[in-house]
Specification:
By secondary structure, the protein is α/β, with parallel strands linked by helices. It has one domain (7-234): NAD(P)-binding Rossmann-like Domain (Rossmann fold). 46% of the residues lie in helices and 13% in strands. The protein binds beta-D-glucopyranose.
């Protein structure tokens, strides 16, 4: 599980671990949130380890999978590609570094982790699943976030393409498309009442989502009840993708 220390990643790690999965809590930067999460999971009897690693770095991804496999044995049979970053920049002000950073983490990171997962599962002739945490912005254009939208639109066709490639190997690939969720990535919305109201007006369900509501969809997509689901995105967005002219 990439980007697992906070937000949707944290809620999903908790959910999957509660359902019995051993979880590799990948994070970058401050180790405290990841360590706290692992302590909580192991404290309640679950198996979990924290592993630092930038998903856009090929060597770091190899090391992440090596440590996960070493800790729990066998190939990792479920990858949740969750690590993601965003920051607003109108096109004319977008620095190349910012464009590259968002594409590197959100899209290249998903590719590197999917490749590692698929290689190990195919070598072991074992089935598995890859769940990508995409966004409503794989279909909704969002001004000032062209890099983010490009990464999520790219993720959509990447996931669909590898779903075709990996189906003969018994590896399912599915995406969840969250709308506006109460997580640290959205701290500005959460803290600014006017902005939040504006966004909530674009959500037919009338409120932002909880990370646990995304975690539940990921758990379903990853599990046996979704055995015939591959190449699809399940939007969990309170109807945001239905709103005409939404930004
Ligand atoms: C973004 C959020 C945004 C939401 C709806 C998500 O993918 O991470 O920042 O609020 O889409 O626009």
């Amino acid at each position: 599980m990439t980007g697992a220390a906070t937000g949707i990643g944290k809620a999903t790690a908790e959910r999957l671990n509660g359902d019995g999965a051993a979880v590799v809590v990948n994070f970058v930067g401050d180790p405290e949130p990841a360590d706290e999460l692992v302590a909580r999971l192991t404290g309640r009897g679950g198996s979990a380890i924290a592993v630092e690693g930038d998903v856009s770095d090929e060597d770091a991804v190899a090391e992440l999978f090596r440590r996960g496999t070493e800790a729990f044995g066998g190939p990792i049979d479920l990858l949740v590609n969750n690590a993601g970053v965003e920051a607003p920049y109108p096109l004319v002000d977008m620095p190349l570094e910012e464009w590259n950073r968002v594409l590197a983490v959100n899209l290249t990171g998903a590719f590197l982790c999917a490749r590692e997962t698929a290689r190990a599962l195919i070598a072991a002739s074992e089935p598995g699943a890859i769940v990508c945490v995409s966004s409503v912005h794989e279909v909704i254009p969002w001004p000032s976030f062209s890099h983010y939208c490009a990464s999520k639109g790219g993720m959509k066709l990447f996931a669909e393409t590898i779903a075709r490639e990996l189906a003969p190997h018994g590896i399912r690939v599915a995406s969840v498309g969250p709308g506006a969720i109460l997580t640290p990535i959205n701290h500005e919305l959460v803290e600014d009442e006017d902005k939040r109201r504006e966004v909530e007006e674009q959500i037919p369900w009338g409120r932002m989502g909880e990370p646990e509501e995304i975690a539940a969809a990921i758990a379903w997509l990853a599990g046996p009840e979704a055995s015939y689901v591959t190449g699809a995105t399940l939007f969990v967005d309170g109807g945001m993708t239905l709103y005409p002219g939404v930004t």
